[in-house]
Amino acid sequence: MEYLRKSSLWALPTFLLCVFIVFTNNINGVNASHKVFPELQSTIPIDVENVHRTGYHFQPPKNWINDPNGPMYYNGIYHLFYQYNPYGSVWGNIVWAHSVSTDLINWIPLEPAIYPSKVFDKYGTWSGSATILPGNKPIILYTGIVDSNKTQVQNYAIPADLSDPFLRKWIKPDNNPLIVADITINKTQFRDPTTAWLGQDGNWRITIGSVWENKGIALLYKSKDFMRWTKVKSLLHSANNTGNWECPDFFPVLLHGTNGLDASYNGKNIKHVLKVSLDVTRFEYYTIGTYDTKKDRYVPDNTSVDGWKGLRLDYGNYYASKSFYDPSKNRRVIWGWANESDTVDDDVKKGWAGIQTIPRKLWLDPNGIQLVQWPVEELNTLREKKVQLKNHKLKKGEMIQVKGITPAQADVEVTFSFSSLDKAEPFDPSWTDLYAQDVCAIKDSTVQGGVGPFGLLTLASEKLEEYTPVFFRVFKAQDKYKVLMCSDASRSTLENDKTMYKPSFAGYVDVDLTKNKKLSLRSLIDHSVVESFGAGGKTCITSRVYPTLAIYDNARLFAFNNGTENIKIELNAWSMGKPKMDWSFGHSSY
């Protein structure tokens, strides 16, 4: 254990409020996965740049990746399928890449499972899901692109050899496609079938994302035999003014406890979750509600808001997530994709783009109104050297550097406690209609507060020219306290490219500080990504950053307090090792 120094936050460089860059095809600044750069789709870099590559997140050695597809657990093996461009580092030439694991951390890459080869997917094999049918038979449903107009249909694929433990080869039978859009559906926005669930009436059901006149819709289909599908007249759910719904996910959760449930479970004491990825904002939203099996309708609870003001799985760079039930540990696990926040030119130059976030266990919070997420327990096997800080006090403007670990590749858990809420700043009523990240931009980590801001300075350079703060700030709002959690990339790099996206991501944390004056934070720091989990996973934020000074051994980690209320911290931090990923075992294009 070694803690280098206490310093004053007043040494932090001043800066202007972050400028939000809005691209024409999205709101949060991250390029859409389907944005086409035909001239770059098959551009192979002369050399792959490694400076910002992650150490323990999932990513191939080179090229573009996006959505995790149809993750599943089958006969003791975890399967991760994901969208992959074998020939370049921008979106295009998409295949279903395939890797397998026994622990969700160490992976073996295989040949692509699905790739364009038939008339029903000649122009693309897009996202979908896996289902385990009776008789322990896995099947994949995926979206095929049949023409240059991006007409979308739903296809299936099955393993060629069930005796192969890795299910290396997949067959696309000639009776595809299984589902074709009728005249009431926008056939160019008709994609991403979910894992199927089996109803008490003996019918399988799936939902598919789409849009109608700017209304996001979850179409519902049913089938007795999984081959012949009929569209249900009523929608599973819809919401006005939300645009196209991508990558829907629909599953049950227990009212009590952290165990997961199979998609077909429909017993007592459950709620259902509908998650959608909004093509317009590039964020993931979800509601919690009731699934009426007789009417085939999903109704969100009155505590869940549909649309842009609703709950998010992650308030940062996290999209196109897909969950699955893991019967080996009785849990639901969710994967998400974190795209790059630099430019397309940067991606072409460095030769890679996109990572998969750390898989998370997911369950319903005891309050019944939101989900909780936490890195799967297997991640702890990568923890190496550990340092601790016990009962350390930070006064206003103080920070302390944590030494003895690798700050560029670390896992940090810290609890902040305080004795009083009396100094909490008033919450400005004019902020009520603002998004949390707008408030974070106004009240960033350098703006002195009362109770907070306090947190971590991750991927910081020695003299703090660069750093990415992850922090809390407590406000007093009428008869309650509001907790803001921020992950602010605005100072993350000295790179002055104006097209680089450096947002101050943020979300509110639903905790009652009057009962327990503590806030916990876990941050997974990995060179160009900071995944953070506030209050035990109630609020999650993923940031992609590209420091120029705070790289490798030159990165630093600090805990800080810039509020007038003294803060005590309990900190545990670990250097993180690298998982085993033998990419030479897989397809040559890796």
UniProtKB/TrEMBL annotation:
Residues 57-375 form the Glycosyl hydrolase family 32 N-terminal domain. It comes from the Eukaryota. Pfam families: Glyco_hydro_32C, Glyco_hydro_32N. Belongs to the glycosyl hydrolase 32 family. Transmembrane segments: none annotated. May be present in two forms, a 70 kDa monomer and a heterodimer of the 30 kDa and 38 kDa subunits. The ratio of the levels of the two forms within cells appears to be regulated developmentally. Gene3D superfamilies: Exo-inulinase, domain 1 (2.60.120.560), Glycosyl hydrolase domain, family 43 (2.115.10.20). Keywords: Glycosidase, Hydrolase. PROSITE patterns: GLYCOSYL_HYDROL_F32. The gene is INV1_5. One of its GO terms (biological process) is carbohydrate metabolic process. Residues 378-575 form the Glycosyl hydrolase family 32 C-terminal domain. This is Beta-fructofuranosidase, insoluble isoenzyme 1. InterPro entries: ConA-like_dom_sf, Fructan_Metab_Enzymes, Glyco_hydro_32, Glyco_hydro_32_AS, Glyco_hydro_32_C, Glyco_hydro_32_N, Glyco_hydro_beta-prop_sf. PANTHER family: BETA-FRUCTOFURANOSIDASE, INSOLUBLE ISOENZYME CWINV1-RELATED. The lineage of its organism: Eukaryota, Viridiplantae, Streptophyta, Embryophyta, Tracheophyta. GO terms for molecular function: hydrolase activity, hydrolyzing O-glycosyl compounds.
